[in-house]
Amino acid sequence: MTKTTFPGRAALALLALAGLCLAAGCSPQREKSAAGAPGQQAATSGGAAGTGAEAGAAGAEKPWPAPDFALATVGGGTVRLADLKGKVVLVDFWATWCPPCRKEIPHLVTLYQKYKDQGLEVVGLADDPRDHAQVAPFVARQKIPYTVAFSAENTADSFGGVVGYPTVFVINRTGQVVQKFIGYADEGNLEAAVKRQL
After folding, report:
1. Could you tell me which residues come within 8 angstroms of residue 133 by beta carbon, excluding any fewer than 6 positions away?
2. First-last CA distance in the chain
3. For residue 55, which of 66, 68, 42, 67 has the smallest C-alpha distance?
């Protein structure tokens, strides 16, 4: 009996794997520390597939203090996280070459425009040093209205490490990290996280 093979099965498997990687997020191009800040698992969302679905409450750690930073912005200024205390802040680690990041940014733009008058700030941190020349033109093309800055070498590590792009940290009005989305998160889940803190 002759065994039937399906040419292209390997190609289909590779495409499926690529789709899963796209949903989960992009891997950072520089190695980041996997260990990190206390409570780095606090109220984590996104999950392995990066769907933005809520993680179970069991085993969630308490909120933890967001590390301060002072970083150069695309516009030539400086953004300090400490200056945003009293506001709800979304800190988004991303890269211009990352498809899930590009898909998520319009959600962040919409949320910023909708809730900025109620105390929401969004800070996008371009996290690949080799990508810096692309950031300002990308921000201009996308008409991103919120602050975009360049992440420093240790910024992601100070947040406990970033294992994939995009990663969004939700910081409450008292400066505590209360939730984390790893990989692409849809607008509904991001909005629910923001509304809980406003």
Report:
1. none
2. 68
3. 42
pLDDT grade, residue 26 (50/70/90)? confident
Name the E strands within 8-140.
44-45, 64-65, 70-72, 78-80, 88-94, 120-126
What mean pLDDT is reported for the chain? Answer: 80
Local confidence band at 60 (pLDDT 50, 70, 90 cut-offs)? very low
Name residue, tokens 């020349």. Answer: 133
At 61 the pLDDT is 56
Q: How many residues does the chain have?
A: 198
Structural domains in the chain, CATH included, are 27-197 (3.40.30.10)
**174 C-beta neighbours (distance < 10 Å), count:** 12
Give the integer Cα–Cα distance in Å for 142 and 128. 19
Q: How far apart are CA 146 and CA 87, in angstroms?
A: 14
| Tokens 């970083």 found at | 71
pLDDT digits (tens, 9 = 90+) for 115-136: 999 999 999 999 988 889 999 9
